[in-house]
Amino acid sequence: MNWDETGPDTDERAHLVDERLDDRLVDAGADGEDTAVEAALRPKDLDEFVGQEKVREQLDLVLKAALARGATADHVLLSGAPGLGKTTLSMIIAAEMNAPIRITSGPAIQHAGDLAAILSSLQEGEVLFLDEIHRMSRPAEEMLYMAMEDFRVDVIVGKGPGATAIPLELPPFTLVGATTRAGLLPPPLRDRFGFTGHMEFYSPSELERVIHRSARLLDVEIDVVGAAEIAGRSRGTPRIANRLLRRVRDYAQVKADGRIDQEIARAALKVYEVDARGLDRLDRAVLGALLKLFGGGPVGLSTLAVAVGEERETVEEVAEPFLVREGLLARTPRGRVATPAAWAHLGLVAPQHGGKGQQGLFGA
Ligand SMILES: Nc1ncnc2c1ncn2[C@@H]1O[C@H](COP(=O)(O)OP(=O)(O)OP(=O)(O)O)[C@@H](O)[C@H]1O
Ligand SMILES: [Mg+2]
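Above: the input record for the complex with magnesium ion. Below: its predicted structure, written as tokens.
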């Protein structure tokens, strides 16, 4: 039997993975605590927004030009991994345009009627932020095409053969769509955005600036090396940087005088098992199994998952993306393979022949 046919479907899988992510300090998704404090840490205008130079510069032009023309800004699509600042940027767009913002998300719009209700209540120039836009229902998506292009929706009245479409004019508005999966957007939708900003991972020095800024807002004293230490472990993601900062602050308050320096940051992140490159226990378990049990691979995903006592999905979707991004692990047609950097990172010595021992063929 094919595992894929009997395994959980995509939604169940996402749920499984979500649960698994909940207790991870280095997960880029927002947890309850993040949501509560993020509002306070969000930059309020483009100047305060750290990094993303290209997107910022391009967006600045789009917005300034619209303001100068006294027009509503073009629709904006923001794509990028979780925690890189899409929601933040959408709020900045509204602020820069001196416009109100309405916030909703793809999963919240089940029926086209839900979207019609939102669209028809927009004010002129309002920013509509549609988070997770790739998760909208098909009929809503089609309604959105027309709304974006012609500022018009057809409201269907009645059912069956007697149903009639009543066209409804909409005031001009700016749609800001956000997605972590730009590839899942149907091309007709993607094409209707006047501007698409791809958010990149942040450099360590950009994250240092994020950390210093947040520390100021949280009223925490932190020195340059302490901030660098946290930045280096934040996986290129401001949300993780802010979260690690809060955990290090806890440690500094309980174990020291509240000030954060390199020593405090290191000791705190040791307690939370986030290593110098930002790998946590799960990441290291996967990498450790690959190296110690399978000689660096190649080994199949299922075998690797069993070896670390995790679900396949957890290994594939939670641990691997970052390991691949860091150049520690490669996915090959024959299975998972560790890179020389992985051996070095775990302080192990690779066997001769580049680690492609015969034992690796078992799981492939
Ligand atoms: N460029 C930035 N400068 C400073 N802080 C930032 C920046 N980008 C993001 N942050 C901080 O990171 C946190 C997460 O950002 P945000 O919620 O905008 O991410 P997101 O891309 O919308 O994530 P998700 O995909 O999970 O919705 C915010 O609290 C914000 O303070
Ligand atoms: Mg968001």
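Notes for the reader.
The pocket of adenosine-5'-triphosphate (ligand 1) is lined by residues 29-30, 38, 41-43, 49-52, 82-88, 180, 210, 238-239, 242 (CB under 6 Å).
Residues 281-361 form a domain with the Arc Repressor Mutant, subunit A fold (CATH 1.10.10.10).
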